[in-house]
Amino acid sequence: MLVRLMLLDKKSVQTGLTFVLDGPRGPELVRDVPESVVLDTLRRMPTARPPV
Fold first, then answer.
1. Which pTM was predicted?
2. I need a labelling partner for 26 at 20 to 30 A (CA). Which of 18, 19, 47, 52 fits?
3. What gap in Å lies between CA 7 and CA 4, rounded to an integer?
4. What are the structural domain ranges in the chain?
5. In Å, what is the CA distance from 9 to each residue of 12, 17, 27, 38, 46?
6. Are 16 and 31 in contact (CB under 8 A)?
7. Cβ neighbour number for residue 17 with a 10 Å cutoff
8. If residue 13 lies in a helix (H) or strand (E), which one and from where to where?
9. 9-38 pLDDT, tens per residue?
10. Are 7 and 19 in contact (CB under 8 A)?
11. Cα–Cα distance between 39 and 29 in angstroms, integer?
């Protein structure tokens, strides 16, 4: 669901997802990131445990 919402972002005007990432010259637009790369990256991220 998160990726579907990300595709609605105003920066997402090409065929893939678009991110603004910190680069050597400051913020840079990275276009057409494949959805599979984003999903794989999200799966590898640690998740927080809900408070008990």
1. 0.61
2. 47
3. 5
4. 2-44
5. 5, 9, 17, 15, 24
6. yes
7. 19
8. none
9. 665 555 678 888 999 999 998 888 888 998
10. no
11. 19
